[in-house]
Amino acid sequence: MKVVIVDDERHVREAVRLLVDWEALGIAEIHEAANGEEAAALIERERPGIVVTDMMMPVRGGLDLLAWLQANRPEIQKIVISGHDDFHLVRGTMQHGGQDYLLKPIDPEQLTGALERAVARWHEQDRTRKHELARNMEINQLRPVMRDRIFSDLLGGGDPYGNAQTVLLGESGAPHPSACLVSVLDVDSASSEVADRYARHRDLLYFTLTNIADEVLRRGERGIACRNLRAESEILLFVWTDARAARTDATLEETLSEINDGCDLTLKCRFDFGIGTAQPFPQGASTSYQSARSALHERNLLEERTYYYRPEAAAARPAFPPPRLEDYEEVLRLAVLAGSERQIGDAVGRWMAEVRRMPRISGEQLRRWRDDLGDMLRRWRETPGRQADAPSEERASAGETDEDPVPSGVIPMDARGRLDLDRLESMLRDFLTAYARSRSAAGQQTQSAIPAVVRYIEQHYNKELTLQDIASQFYLSREYISRRFKQETGENLIDFLCRIRIDKAKLLLESPHFKISQVAEMVGYADEKYFSKVFKKLTGLSPNQYRKNNV
């Protein structure tokens, strides 16, 4: 800690220096100033914790200095040493936050006592400031999550909390929008380079895209962007318009192009957008979203990419029965069982020959094929030769899991933005080849996934997490992950999740600005009553009682 001594008489400053055991008080640096003007410049530079000042000085006196400190550095502790026993000066000292008023000649014990109190107050206030800073940081981190949840819930119809408009006013001061158009940014339309770069940092990619879109939309109060917590790989854009869609198509696409330009500048990649219909806000947001999502996922991936897709374009698609993956299941299963790369390649090639005959392939069709592949893999777990009755952890050590992974949702595109069927075939062939190898890798040990599970819970506690959700995330059975978590951490997984949520809730409850229902939502509880029950079980207090004791 530092101290500044302010007095126009050198011998007084020297006396103050000599009369105190500064080291015992934990004060490492002592600085001097001859008047208030000089002291102000010194304080700005050195940032002391305590100022000891005279009252009657040239240039700027003690009262002026105290007033300046109160306005600019209120955290600094202020002690006055004066030769004037004047009520006006004493009252001014108290009004400007001075803690002690000592008379000259200086009494060493009084001065030491005043400094001890000042040091104690400074440390106490410093602890309070740090606590407030930590709490505000936590709340600032959670506030975007709350906004994402409120606007994601609009997609279910209506405004369950009645505060979407409140969020808008609190963040931007914009007038209440009467209508909106929802657009969906498809994160999975990223280039393979961006997908690979952010494979382990998906949240960072979502954060970057949301910020780019939000920055563009907030200029001119055009709208707001947030992450869709109801669907992976979607950023929601609420574009303000009116019920007659007065915002022209050209203006809308200019806005989306501006966002895409920002993505290209930052990530070297452009993305696809689905464009919904103009609807009343907030009650029509769900209808607009469904039309945007349909336009996005039903676009023909075999055509050159345009980036911006509308419902009417999706409705004009020609009917063509897609080949069924399950019709090729037996030939694919036998190739995988044989473990032959040539057989796997031939089987995949026969399937892809039918796919290549299709005049259109949509993203939704790719998702259905991917789901069909996942169903096939689950059925294959019951085929002869597999240790179906072995414990889950033993099969995991042999390269098998209760939830078999399938290829990621990233769509391979060529240079013109069309679905690259050659790469799609290669991806499926490589995946099934690797899957065949994993089935035969008996005895191969795997590293414990529990530390990663702990990190995942700490990062996603505010979502609706179940044991099945977590098990599926790591391709393990619920029974295995529950048992291993208890063995390695000494705590049940669900108990751990509850404890993390309640710890975060405590911080939020210390802010009177959040309702109990909002706090519950922000830490992952959709039911306020259930949240209160869990909170009281773990803390012994209801959320309201805890807030009363800590606010």
Query: What structural class do the secondary elements suggest?
Result: alpha/beta
Shape: elongated
- CATH-level-2 architecture of the largest domain: 2-Layer Sandwich
Which regions have little confidence, pLDDT < 50, spanning 5+ residues?
243-247, 383-406, 442-446
Please estimate the helix content: 40-55%
What number is the mean pLDDT? 82
**Could you state the CATH homologous superfamily of the largest domain?**
Reverse transcriptase/Diguanylate cyclase domain
Strand order of the largest sheet: 2-1-3-4-5
Number of helices: 23
Q: Roughly what fraction of the amino acids lie in strands? A: 5-15%
Q: In the CATH hierarchy, what is the class of the largest domain?
A: Alpha Beta
How many discrete structural domains?
A: 4
The major sheet is characterized as: 5 strands, parallel
Q: How big is the Rg?
A: 33 Å
Distance between the termini: 30 Å
Q: Give the number of DSSP strands.
A: 10
CATH topology annotation of the largest domain = Alpha-Beta Plaits
